[in-house]
Amino acid sequence: MAEAESGSAGAADGRRDPFARLGAGRVPAVVLALAWLAWFGVIQWSVVRFRVPIVVTLTVVTALLAWWLWRRVEVPFPRWLAPALVVGSTVTTLTVPLFSYLRGGWLTAALVVLTVGGGMCAVLLSLPGRRSATAAFGAAVVTHVLLSVVTILGDRAPRIDVWVILQQGADALSRGESFYTQVWTGSPGVKDTFSYLPWMGVLTAPGRWVAGDVRWAILLWSLVLFGGLWALARGHVERAAAVVAVLVLAPGTLTQVDQAWTEPVLAALLVWWAVLVRRGHAWWAVVPLALACASKQHLALLAPVLLAWRPFGWQRTLAAGGLAGVLMLPWVLADADAFVEDTVTTLLTFHPIRFANTWYLYALNEHGVELPFAVTGVAMLGAVAVASYAVWRRTPAVGELLRWLALVLAVANLVNKQAFYNQFWLVASLVAASLAADAVRDPAPSEDTATPGSHQPHEPHLFGVTPKR
């Protein structure tokens, strides 16, 4: 009913504004589907290769996300969208070059899991009713669990430094030693650096301690993420099932699981932050946000946007930063120089990796030019500034806020010298979470979550654009 109402209103607006007419029709859903498949198609292809068309495609999709946010176009979520995305994702997974250390029967088994699971999800999502949607959600979750089991058992020691440092970092933690004073044995990449903030090691270590592999913990965090997406949709079972299935079957997921990339941990924490804020527990939301910020450095880019968002506000944002600092304090006190060297200095001075598909690597690979930090820094800070200003002016709903966070990370990735599949996956996961949040409109901010005077009967316009409702 809400979509029908917005469609009729959009039709009236469309007589004055062609973009409103675009927003009222089915074109935005088609564009969303094509953008999603293009984004994941090229990032699956990007492991491990640099290609100019990949950078261009990622930039175009980022620009579409920015346009979506600027114009506040109403994007419907018709029944055909999720099945089409699942089928398209399955085909993309099977046809686009896919990087994996799995071989032989293990690789075949993983692809069979994805194909059968994708087919089941597509059929169930095309059927009406809550039972079919619940079954689709269950099928998606089981698909991811089976994929993880096959991948972890089929490749018990992936040749990537991420897995090595998380595994041996967990062993160091069990001995009461700092991550930042270790020398890694058998790492194909970094030998003496723990490039994450400490709580990424803490949150993944139980997988090593209990089952011998940190990837089991990442699987558990993926399940926490799926539960958060379900909660974020607030009883809209069809939307929750659609979003989870589309994310589970996203092209390149096999590579992500195999490589022990940790972005599902961050996505789970950010989604549960959004769930708690929406349910009126904004102070409790400080905890998952602090854990995320104590796990990976680049989430600091999101802090100004959250600070400008009145339902969360500057007090809780600063509290989250303070709690993150407290959580990291034991490692700082243990060896401050080693902590700063691994988490700050090394990342700033680390050499560019030539198969990162970013504009920084385009300039280096194609023209032999290393972009100065002033250029990349201005781009990142500009994205943060625009997002913060827009969020302050509009006080958007949770769904739109998540898209602003995704845009900030997307721009940061595109100008970085070390951005790969996993960083671009996190951007898409926030967009997926925003679609789950969009299933229901947020209530007016309560006295507990709003800054005095923040709830206004008419939202201020940004850049002279009337917000769509």
Task: Please specify the SSE layout and strand pairing.
Elements: H1 2-14, H2 18-24, H3 27-45, H4 52-71, H5 81-95, H6 104-126, H7 130-154, H8 161-174, H9 198-211, H10 214-232, H11 237-248, H12 253-258, H13 263-278, H14 286-293, H15 303-308, H16 313-334, H17 336-349, H18 359-367, H19 373-394, H20 398-414, H21 421-437
Helix pairs in contact: 1-2, 3-4, 3-5, 3-21, 4-20, 5-6, 5-11, 6-7, 7-10, 7-11, 8-9, 9-10, 10-11, 10-13, 11-21, 13-14, 13-21, 14-16, 16-17, 19-20, 20-21
The span between the termini is 13 Å
Strand content: under 5%
* Estimated radius of gyration: 22 Å
Mean pLDDT: 90
Secondary structure: number of strands: 0
Keywords:
single chain; 469 residues; mainly alpha; 68% helix; globular; disordered N terminus; disordered C terminus
Detailed description of the structure:
By secondary structure, this protein is mainly alpha-helical. The two termini are 13 Å apart. The model is unreliable at 1-24 and 444-469 (pLDDT under 50). It has helices spanning 2-14, 18-24, 27-45, 52-71, 81-95, 104-126, 130-154, 161-174, 198-211, 214-232, 237-248, 253-258, 263-278, 286-293, 303-308, 313-334, 336-349, 359-367, 373-394, 398-414, 421-437. It is built from 21 helices and no strands. The radius of gyration is 22 Å and the shape is globular. Helices cover 68% and strands 0% of the residues.
